[in-house]
Automatic annotation (TrEMBL):
Domain (Acetyl-CoA hydrolase/transferase C-terminal) ranges: 340-502
PANTHER family membership: ACETYL-COA HYDROLASE, ACETYL-COA HYDROLASE-RELATED
Organism: Sinorhizobium garamanticum
Annotated Pfam families: AcetylCoA_hyd_C
Single GO MF annotation: hydrolase activity
Keyword line: Hydrolase
Protein's name in the database: Acetyl-CoA hydrolase
Amino acid sequence: MTGKPEQHQRAESIADRIIERLDGRIVLGLPLGLGKANLVANALFERAVEDKAIDLEIFTALTLEKPSWSSDMERRFVEPLVERLYSGCPDIAYAEALREGKLPENVRVSEFFFVAGRWLAVEIAQQNYISANYTHVGRYVIDRGINVLAQLVAKRGDGADAEYSLSCNTDITLDILPKMRARREPFLLVGEVSSQLPFMPGEAALPAGEFDLVLDGPDRDRPLFVVPREAVSTADHAIGIHAASLVKDGGTLQIGIGSLGDALTAGLILRQRRPELFADALHRLSAHDEAAKRETGAFETGLYAASEMFVDGFMDLYRERILKRRASDGAILHSGFFVGSTAFHRFLRDLPEEERALFQMRGISFVNELYGDEEQKRADRVNACFVNNAMMVTLMGATVSDALADGRVVSGVGGQYNFAAQAFALEGGRSIITINAARQARGRRESHLVWSYGHTTLPRHLRDMVVTEYGVADLRGKSDRDCIAAMLAITDSAFQDELLDTAKSAGKIEKDFTIPSASRRNTPARIAEALLPVRKQGWCATFPFGTEFTAEEQHLVRALRHLKHTSASMRLLARAVLASLTQGQPDQEERAALERMQLAAPATLRERFYAKLLLLALRRGRCMSP
């Protein structure tokens, strides 16, 4: 570490300096998600491709890539979206080479968390995946000899007064930086300045002298990678309302990413603004008298957030005066990393500095663990609800969140285990797994609640609360038999009998057990009916917080999803093809969607076929519950 960093305007010159100072043996750490120094990483990768004497090993996670397509219909939707949202965002070179099988022998890439489903078919990525709790990653990369950490940073001031904020990714950096400096081995901290990153204060802010090399050139104004907010289905909203009824005023909250996180946020805001309507919706959704035991009042004291990821939803909760309870240090949120929508990034940039200080970015060990400052953390994290998503849950409460039965990794463990462990360690803490009871896959519906599975992320002895659209199963401290009964009560009715028969055959529930009649109506139709009064009053929208998608794209999202499910079954596809032949002329809304897909005036037989199928999907999608 020097008194001030070397300043560079070109990533190539930084790459040359790194290679020179480390004699060509580079173990590069890149933060997960948004915080990667893409230009520096790309320059190092290009040098390694050109010079096989350079040895480059990369450790990272959550490599963000622009959306891609696997069919001409998808291309028509995605290509203009990519141009609009990601123009100016540099691609990450190692990811493209890895996906195409063109990674040089002198370059190795290992990740500990994938963008969900993106690397399932890439064997080398699967082979190099590191299974790790988020809090253990720092020690792993130190053990593997990391000697460069290259990160996107925000800058404030100039010269000797300059400060750099780790901004979106304090997570691993704050944990390993003191350890690397203490080892006195060759190590370079490299900053890549972005004028679009918000300058997050507190521990995220580092003096210039902490950095060895800084890239601050003409590309500093390029746009940030954005993650558009997803469509929220009716089932998602039902889950969100159930989960929101478990959150106590004055408590602590962790929220996961995606549509279920947005559904929970929407449920909390409905409870805040219209507690009577929230209570009525909860009563309509609940098969038993559960609603009377839940939390339905508005938030007076408010919530504090201790969340691995600072998601868009916390912005909405702050604006609604729900996220307002202060921790011991005055913060209303402690988090380790963020990446979000354009509106979310703008929100953080535009906040007055004293307000931005309410959102404190810390090392991941602070957020995900109780170790260190334990007394303070216990005082702050009262009545904590750690809400995370899953792929599947077994009837005896084991959670599957990261990988398939054959070992292929879908995403990663991340901090899910840490938060489950915290929930058991904290007084009043609960680990809440939110999951859709069923999904449409390969042309048919499949249950997400299963008897058993060949892989688990959270073992069944850490079972706590599971929430589906059909209700809440409180599994903590329950016997296997009672756990199975509770899970069957929140299972889609199409799968209850088969699962019950399996449980009986295994001797895990009595032979004469019957599922209560109130739980025999666990169908999508009942959920849609229960939420209809709320929807009529403007709640439970498909995009409750807006989206980067245009109006036409919002219609197309639903239609293309319907078309994808239909195409997965030859029988359904054949029916759709026949039905499409009888479609009349498109109305104004449908024509706008067809124009967006360049199918309003089809010139070829294939395009006419696409236009007919898409028109059918638009109409069926409009009639279906979102």
